[in-house]
Amino acid sequence: MAKTKTMEDLLLSEMKDLYDAEKQLVKALPKMAKATTSEELREGFLEHLEQTKEHVTRLERAFSMLGQKAGGKKCVAMQGLIEEGEEVLDEIGEGPVRDAALIGAAQRVEHYEMAGYGCSRTFAETLGHSDVAELLQRTLDEEKETDEKLTEIAEGLVNEEAVQSSGGAGA
Ligand code: FE
Ligand code: FE
Fold first, then answer.
1. Cα(55) to centroid of ligand 2, in Å?
2. Where are the domains of the chain?
3. Which ligand has an atom closest to residue 54 CA?
4. Which tens digit of pLDDT belongs to each residue from 10-43?
5. Contact (CB, 8 A) for 66 and 132
6. CA–CA dist 128, 67 (Å, integer)
7. Fold for domain 7-160?
8. Does the pTM of the predicted model rise above 0.70?
9. Measuring CA to CA, which residue among 113, 104, 122, 132 is closest to residue 20?
């Protein structure tokens, strides 16, 4: 069972985890886009879907740079994060509150990816695979940008909800 012995093994293991996580996200993001009533958030999810597909191919490129094949690992953490995102749909009806909850779920995903890419990048750099490190850094930057954009959209939603609530109360 102890297949991971060296830092090289660990780098591959981390990358395999990310590879599966990204592939799960390619399936989940269209569902999240469908579940929101915010045009801005929908566009954000769909834009990140395109980036996520690129993250998958970037990882495939990184594996081939290392003379390895992608795949072979299940990212249980991402499965859990996506399941929690799906719970939002059961628990909250359409509207800004649901949208804000979707953003919370999406940001958990981005932070998980940021941690994975950050440490993989560092391992690759330290092991002298600067070409791989550069690819991982590029994806890391996109995950960070996505996270920041989600924060901006969330700020707008909180205002929107406040307006709707006061409007509903006839104030
Ligand atoms: Fe990604
Ligand atoms: Fe992402």
1. 8
2. 7-160
3. 1
4. 999 999 999 999 999 999 999 999 999 999 999 9
5. yes
6. 15
7. Ferritin (1.20.1260)
8. yes
9. 113
* pLDDT per residue as tens digits for the range 71-107: 989 999 999 999 999 999 999 999 999 999 999 999 9
Q: Which residue has the tokens 């909180």?
A: 158
**CB atoms inside a 10 Å sphere around CB 134:** 13
Distance 110 CA to ligand 1 centre (A): 7
SS (H, E, C) 23-79: HHHHHHHHHHHHHCCCHHHHHHHHHHHHHHHHHHHHHHHHHHHCCCCCCCCCCHHHH
> How far, in Å, CA of 70 to CA of 149, rounded?
30
pLDDT at 57: 98
Nearest CA to 112 among 137, 85, 143? 143
| Alpha carbon of 106 to ligand 1 centroid (Å) | 11
Residues across the chain:
171
CB 76 within 8 Å of CB 23? no
Ligand 2 center to 110 CA (angstroms): 5
CA distance 102 to 159: 16
Q: Looking up tokens 């909250």, which residue turns up?
A: 92
d(CA 66, CA 61): 9
